[in-house]
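Quick note —
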Amino acid sequence: MNLKTLTIVVLGLAAVAGAGLLGQRLLGPSSAAGRVGKPLLDGVDLAVAARIELVGPASHTTLVSRPDGWFVQEQGAFPANQDKLNSFLFKLAEQKIADQVTENPDNFADLGVRTVEENGNKAEERKTGTLFSILDGSGKPVFQILIGRDRQPGMTVSSYGGQYVRFPGENAALLIGTTLVADTEPKEWIEKQILPREAEPQFKLIRVARTGAKPLAFSRDKRESPWLLDGASPTGLNTKEVDNLSKKLRDLEATQIAPAGKSRKELGRDKLSAVDVQLFDGRAFRLEVGEAKGPDNFRYVTVQETLDSSKTDATLKKEVEAFNRKFKDRVLAIPDWDAGRLLRERKDYVQAS
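Predicted structure written out below.
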């Protein structure tokens, strides 16, 4: 999803919600009290958004717009999770200011809407808010909000729910009706899915090659055929475990991109295992998995897609090219447990007779 699509989606939602001023510049009311009942994004033109920043007490994330989508700057400009960003902006566009809570700065810390500067230049988890900013191409903020703590329980059920927010530079803490999950950790914004989920029914062959061990090759003649393992009788194969391997490949997600400047040894990639997946349509994927743990106890992998030379389908070729552009020169972290599930031994698949 590119910037144009994102803007259309959010503008459309806002129009349904009655936020008719989203096509204008930031022209909010002059007083905080005047904001009550109005959309949180009142007067914001998302069409000029070129950068989004989320700055919290412990971490910060920068999302940068390009013609082909949004990217997470701190994760080596890896593609962002467009669905997550879309969902966040949807929720943001839906919000209206429910109430003005207080204009007393002494209460801002309890609500989590102090700025770092107001807090003695100290970022504190419970006192300082997450600063969410939308910036244009020149770096000028067109919208900023401090996102504070969830609404505190009171004496009545109706006092539950919502979140405290504050516009920087204004001496009023406000309340919105929904909690905004504003992740500030960059790895939480990357597109985590590795292999296309829809490819799994097309799996024709799965080959697992561990260093020092005989490769395991699971294959099937048709999509509806049972899996077979080279050298094992059909009755002796634990097909449930093969299905689990297939699903693990389908669901495999990257946790983060390898930290910059790390060597192969530091990433646990001096020795590599390979997992090859061939599809009935001629596509194939290769994952090279480090056999040792790297930073943060993750295992680090690379992935590449190829297309059989006999295939001339233009759509398939474009899909393969796009996949390889996404993962070119990328080293991805996956949980050690997931790597272990991919690289199981022959005895895990062959039932005892």
